[in-house]
From TrEMBL:
Keywords: Ribonucleoprotein, Ribosomal protein. The keyword Ribosomal protein applies. This is S23 ribosomal protein. InterPro entries: 23S_rRNA-intervening_sequence, 23S_rRNA_IVS_sf.
Length: 127
């Protein structure tokens, strides 16, 4: 049985959790007043889940794969911005580590999904 909607994808579910947490931590204190960083990290987090959903909705394995590439890049962007937030004193080490670990997990799941799509595409091409 295949996945019928993007909401069933673990990658999207984990990206949603990460986005929710990014919004929560960037809504407090000095982080909330650094409009540039706050808005950029939020956009990058939203981009992760949005690109998973959009790629899935395209209905093509090739397009889905390409959107996963974009989504994975947005994960890296979030991770980089978390360092900025840590260095600016907006996040403590524990919060930074938790969010960074979550972003890494999302990236690994997206990579595994891409690998799975690659195998499916290779199988369809071969047979």
């Amino acid at each position: 049985m295949g996945v019928e909607k993007f909401e069933d994808l673990v990658a999207w579910q984990k990206a949603r959790e990460l986005t929710k947490e990014i919004y929560r931590v960037s809504n407090d204190g000095a982080f909330s007043r650094d409009f540039g960083l706050r808005d950029q990290i939020r956009r990058a987090a939203v981009s992760i889940m949005s690109n998973i959903a959009e790629g899935f909705g395209r209905g093509s394995m090739n397009e889905f794969h390409q959107f996963l590439v974009i989504s994975k890049a947005s994960c890296a962007e979030v991770q980089s911005q978390l360092y900025v937030a840590l260095d600016a004193g907006y996040l403590d080490q524990t919060t930074f580590r938790r969010l960074s670990d979550n972003a890494n997990e999302v990236g690994r799941i997206i990579s595994a999904l891409r690998t799975s799509l690659d195998k499916q595409r290779a199988f369809k091409t071969k047979y």
